[in-house]
Amino acid sequence: MTLNKIAYSAFIAFMASLFTMVSVNALSSGERDEAADDELDAITLDELAEHDGAESCWKAIHGRVYDVTDYIPDHPTDEEIMLEWCGREATEGWDNKRPGVPHSPRADGMLEEYLVGRLVDEEGEPFESEAATEPSDTVSQDTDTDEARLSPVDDERLHRALLGLPLDGRYRGVFSDGGEMQVNVQFDLRDGRLSNVSYRHLAYRGVDYLALEEGDELYPVMVQHQQITERLEGEPVTRVFALYEPERMVDDIDGYSGATLRGNKVISAIRDALNRGVYSWP
Ligand code: HEM
């Protein structure tokens, strides 16, 4: 009986502390959501500028300052892209991760965790950046609408659903059309990220692109396909969907090469590989 009583008291004490923890948490996260700008620490441009590197990286975005030091290794690009904006007003970079393409609502939601204050000018007044007040040439006026934010090329949730979270391993897949194998791609997946992306075959209308030499008329198209593999390196597998807009992945899309570059064939080959399943376990 006594044992039962002890167990019962322990259970009640546990539930009470759990309840307290949950309520404190709810309260504090509620407070954070509602935090008005003037309750946040005022941070000047000079103070911001002291945190301009990988050891401490603060960024001002839409009037608020974020300490994103810990997030840098997790950001889905090379570190340089993140580091370039440390210690400064970074709204322009935030709203244009690619020209005219803002970060996703999911990324917006992540910022809160890194909030450290609000940006003020020398008089202590809220600092208004040009990027935040004047729409830049490259940013479409519509980028704030749900329609623009949920463009299929940017919708990370849609991408994950389409790919069905594949296993890690080595993959091979092809794109064939008109009786001809055009793309045969091989890559490794580790923690959902691509590596060692390479073409085992790349051809169109009987031309073997991998055998082309500098100076050949079609050589630039092969270079662009190589850029695709380089730029997918280390990226989450969902990044392949950006290839529906190849200008987001490769340099110098001019009239000629834009017409011949087929990012969507590479997407097809990669999705074929994922459908086939793991080819080997490297
Ligand atoms: C201001 C400087 C920044 C620049 C220039 C930048 C640039 C980029 C680029 C180039 C991509 C990948 C390409 C793409 O999705 O089209 C990307 C994706 C992403 N970035 Fe950033 N980034 C910046 C800051 C941040 C910060 C501070 C966070 C979060 C704390 C963040 C979170 C993300 C996330 C979650 C993605 C995945 C795609 C998305 O959700 O939009 N980025 N960023």
Walkthrough of the structure:
The chain has 282 residues and is an alpha+beta fold. It folds into 2 domains: 37-143, Cytochrome b5-like heme/steroid binding domain (Flavocytochrome B2, Chain A, domain 1, Roll); 158-276, no CATH class. Helix content is 37%, strand content 20%. Strands 1, 2, 3, 4, 5 and 6 form a 6-stranded mixed sheet that branches. A 4-stranded antiparallel sheet has the order 7-8-9-10. The protein is elongated, with a radius of gyration of 25 Å. The model is unreliable at 14-34, 133-148 and 255-259 (pLDDT under 50). The structure holds protoporphyrin IX containing FE. Keywords: Heme, Iron, Membrane, Metal-binding, Transmembrane, Transmembrane helix. Residues 126-151 are annotated as: Disordered. Residues 40-120 form the Cytochrome b5 heme-binding domain. Belongs to the cytochrome b5 family. It comes from Halomonas chromatireducens.
